[in-house]
Amino acid sequence: MENPVIIIGANGLGAVALDIFKRNNVVVYAFLDDDAKLHNTEIDDVVVMGSPDDEGYTKLIGKKCEAFVAIDEAKVRKNIVEMLHDVRKVQPVNAIHDQAVISSNSAIGHGNLVSAGVIINPRANVGNHNIIHSKVLIDYDAKISDYVQIGAGSVIGAGAEIEDNAFIGTGVTIVGGVKIGKSARIGAGSVVIENVKARETVFGNPAKKV
User: Fold this and answer.
1) Which long-range contacts (CB under 8 A, 24 or more apart) does 171-178 make?
2) Which of 2, 14, 159, 167 has the most beta carbons within 10 angstroms of its beta carbon?
3) Running DSSP on this structure, what letter comes out for residue 16?
4) Which structural domains are found in the chain, ordered by start?
């Protein structure tokens, strides 16, 4: 990546993204965040300059800088991504840890955060703007749509499918071939052995509707 990156979101996820970019020798120009209390503070020597709606900073995106959105909440992340698409005419870049293992026979879109120890096996398909935390396994032929968050240590079985905006907690096992519907939520430590409907919340071993 030739251009420096502006990270939108200056909380914990932003610090993770900064670490990933630094490990890949990518320069981070600045953070932007809506929280005025963070403005003019630093994260590991990188300044939080202002807000994502400040044209004085965002005008650099697409010209001199790339962008990455490091915001946990899927709805807010989507709003920022749409602003970057519509106003700056850019796609956020990926932040992929140098200790992640991604098969050359898999596919991965734009704006994803892929943390340390993640394994993405052959023919897996990862969409756009997902947050994949440390030591997640996405097995072969699995499909992750857009704006999905997968907690640390989770296992997405072969051929499983996770639709848009789903939240998968820490240490979850999704058995091969299972489908997780849009905006569904899976509680931490759950073992999912059957399909989960859109907007449904499940928890337990085996996971049941809450």
Assistant:
1) 176/139
2) 14
3) H
4) 5-93 (3.40.50.720), 94-210 (2.160.10.10)
- Give the Cα separation of 15 and 32 in Å (integer): 12
The one-digit pLDDT tens for each residue of the chain (210 residues) are 789 999 999 999 999 999 999 999 999 999 999 999 999 999 999 999 999 988 888 999 999 999 999 999 999 999 999 999 999 999 999 999 999 999 999 999 999 999 999 999 999 999 999 999 999 999 999 999 999 999 999 999 999 999 999 999 999 999 999 999 999 999 999 999 999 999 999 999 999 999
CA torsion through residues 26, 167, 62, 49, sign: negative
Q: How far apart are CA 191 and CA 121, in angstroms?
A: 20
Q: How do the residues of the chain divide into helix, strand and coil, expressed in percent and rounded to 5?
A: 15, 30, 55
Give the tokens for residue 183.
């905006």
Cα-Cα-Cα-Cα torsion 97, 99, 100, 103, nearest 10 degrees, comes to: 120
Contact 52, 35 (CB under 8 A): no
Q: Indicate the helix (H) or strand (E) that contains 19.
A: helix 12-23
